[in-house]
Amino acid sequence: MEPDDPAEALTELREQRPGALGLLQLAAGSGLAAYMVWALVLQPGFRRVPLRLQVPYIGASARQVEHVLSLLRGRPGKMVDLGSGDGRIVLAAHKCGLRPAVGYELNPWLVALARLHAWKAGCAGSVCYRREDLWKVSLSDCHNVSVFLAPSVLPQLEDKLQAELPPGARVVSGRFPLPTWQPVAVVGEGLDRVWAYDVRGGGLAGKAVSSGVPIKAAPGPSSTSVPGAPVSQTG
Ligand SMILES: C[S@@+](CC[C@H](N)C(=O)[O-])C[C@H]1O[C@@H](n2cnc3c(N)ncnc32)[C@H](O)[C@@H]1O
Prior knowledge:
235 residues; alpha/beta; Rossmann fold; eight-stranded mixed sheet; 14% strand; elongated; binds S-adenosylmethionine
């Protein structure tokens, strides 16, 4: 019931104030906690990366990892995961024989976690996780590249891959396809989908990005090779 007496109403309001204050404190506390997580856990290492190139951590699902491996298994040469997170793809790649397997990751917490996982798996000395900016590492000796990045950075990534990868290299992109390259194989459905691309012509002059040769993806109901993938050949 509403109090008629203004003095009584004021007293009631005063009594309610701690509740409102409590709510305010809760909101401020949550905001501060969220900021601390962002500043201390998610943000470290990214200060020098332009905002438009920052990609948050979302680990690949077991199925996505499986699909990446189905597209890379048996291939010789160095394998790298650009933005390796907690290192799951690199570790799985190493275990299935892709060597050397290297992860580049800016977030130091994730690099530490990746090393812990490798140590627990008995692979501490064999897999390599480097705390480096993927936009600054040279890819000239990489033959197998895995990327699980945001669509907003993929156009720029395409340019880097095109300019630096040697002919014969394969790129697998998870969740989102490279915007203009033609895949040679696609595995999985929805967000589990992974696209494979073969680099034919390396160097700045090279424009070819797909061998056009259908590759044999690991058996599975959702795997599709792309025999009719358009090929632009220059290299
Ligand atoms: C979507 S997660 C993918 C993680 C991992 N590849 C996986 O699939 O489990 C993207 C990762 O890229 C990292 N990353 C984003 N920008 C980076 C950069 N410039 N250099 C190195 N790592 C970066 C993020 O910290 C994040 O861990």
